[in-house]
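Lab meeting, item 3. Inverse folding demo.
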């Protein structure tokens, strides 16, 4: 699995810039929202190419065993 990273930068004026890498699809927004939940003055969201990539889910087989 690729490394998933959230980078947060706060400049000298208190402006927060947050970006993700290795997190695809809408999951990146939900992870950022959870991390930055207490901030109520979000000004803008810029979606990167990773946002528009589909998340690959591996199929899992569940076997039901009767006893």
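The presenter then showed the designed sequence:
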């Amino acid at each position: 699995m690729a490394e998933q990273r959230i980078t947060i930068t706060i400049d000298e004026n208190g402006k927060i810039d947050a970006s993700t890498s290795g997190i695809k699809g809408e999951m990146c927004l939900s992870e950022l929202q959870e991390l930055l939940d207490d901030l109520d003055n979000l000004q803008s969201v810029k979606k990167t190419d990773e946002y528009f990539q589909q998340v690959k889910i591996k199929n899992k087989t569940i076997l039901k065993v009767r006893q």
